[in-house]
Amino acid sequence: MTRIKGGLLHRKRRAGILKHTKGYRWGRKSKIKVAKVAKMKAGQHAFSDRRKKKRSMRQLWTIRLNAAVRKHNLSYSKFIDLLKKANIELDRKVLSQLALKYPKVFDKLVETVAK
Prior knowledge:
By secondary structure, the chain is mostly helical. It has helices at 7-20, 32-70, 76-85, 92-101, 103-114.
């Protein structure tokens, strides 16, 4: 039986790595060893940054809520406490969207909670 050297697969694997690293700077786009490491690191950052995005969005919602509630002489923490006591189970995302897009509805919500 003849021996098959893995030339085609070898080339395909390397071409795939280089396809992923297209647009990277310096040798990270063209040199296989460096490109392999760059691709791996990029994947790690992508994974962790998906979690960081959730964290930063929640911070943004909190900041928006605090700014909207300050107009009614309340603080963010007091507002959240009043919501829990009134058994209103709206999350921060929905509350911040209300404050941003529907200020009149949000004002009514704050008035009902603050009573």
